[in-house]
Amino acid sequence: MPEIRVLNLRKSFGTTTVLDGIGFTVHDKEFVTLLGPSGCGKTTTLMSIAGFQTPDEGVIAVGDEVFVDRRAGIDLPAERRNLGIVFQSYALWPHMTVAQNVAFPLSLRKVDKRAARERVAEVLDLVELGAHGGRYPHQLSGGQQQRVALARAIAYSPKVLLLDEPFSNLDAKLRERARDWLKHLQLSLGLTTVFVTHDRDEALAMSDRVLVMNNGRVLRDGTAEEVYHEPRARFVAQFLGRCNFLTGRVESGPDGTSLLRTPAFPEGIVVAGAHPGPEATAAVRPHAVELLGPDADGVEASVLEAAFLGDHYRYLVRIGEYRIEAHAPHRIASGPARLRIPPGAAVFVD
User: Fold this and answer.
1) Those residues with Cβ within 8 angstroms of residue 239's Cβ, 6 or more apart along the chain or in another chain
2) Parallel, antiparallel, or unpaired for β 279-284 and 244-252?
3) pLDDT by residue (tens digit) across 85-138?
4) Mind listing the domains of the chain with CATH numbers?
């Protein structure tokens, strides 16, 4: 499977800029997710790769074939791009059986009928629907319809698989099962894949790389671990989960670290990496905050609220005039406590 190269995509609708210089590469057999809120430009990026949107500027290439080059006047029609696409709505023909839906792109390509029947049977077995070829879409569950849409997308052995929020119509439990199943299929087929979602759990669980987008730009590009633990931007940190933000004066620390002094932590928080200062903001995840009993080391604090969430407790803690969220596996009584942020648990964000 080829790699996808996107360079300096720009797109506006009237006075609204939707894509503002988007650029990235998806390597051969890689699963890359475009993650962000509604209106951030992720679906427009996907539709530009697919050929259903034309960017105002930029280049899109898959392998050695250039799909779009606005300066050169190249804009290959969608039907000539040989891409597999699964839409949010699945877009199944209601009057066609499952087998007929899957065979439809093969008939458009004038594939021999016998070869088409064999390929339909093959891909329906791949998506575990081999016994459902004679059914109609309304006779299937949402999860089964989603698998039919995926079978149709891979029936003609596309170069690349594009997925636009394919699990949005499924309930939470079925979504979890569907994403595990899809990731297994993608790995087994070796498909170069671009996946669009606003769901951070989907992105973190499935992706080789995650591109976090907002306002038509890619703010962070990295592995799931990198974008979560080293968000670099405040928006990225917030979008990927609960986070505390502390702003204060920066001093040089030992071994290439920095010391962030804030009114809540006058003795300072050790933050990994250097910062030019003189002031900075650091982010720290609630699970990295150590909430301890009143006799332990740490700054004086008071537990205001507690919520039991199954595998952990979520606490709202007061330190002077500040409120900090902390997670702990054990129950801590309301009232006096001690709080500590271990060295390296906080990272700088812009």
Assistant:
1) 35, 36, 37, 200, 212, 214
2) antiparallel
3) 998 887 889 999 999 999 998 988 888 899 999 999 998 998 889 999 999 999
4) 4-237 (3.40.50.300), 242-349 (2.40.50.140)
Each residue's pLDDT tens digit, 139-177: 999 888 988 998 999 898 888 999 999 888 888 888 888
- Please, where are the H alpha helices in 232-349? 234-239
What's the order of all strands across the beta sheet hosting 57-62? 16-26, 4-13, 57-62, 65-69, 74-75
Residues sharing a CB contact under 8 Å with residue 29, sequence separation 6 or more, in sequence order: 1, 190, 191, 192
93-99 contacts at long range (C-beta below 8 A, 24 or more positions apart)? 93/137, 94/136, 94/137, 94/138, 95/136, 96/136, 96/137, 97/133, 97/134, 97/135, 97/136, 98/124, 98/129, 98/132, 98/133, 98/134, 98/135, 98/136, 98/137, 98/140, 98/148, 99/124, 99/133, 99/134
Helix (H, G, I), strand (E, B) or coil at 34: strand
Q: pTM for the whole thing?
A: 0.90
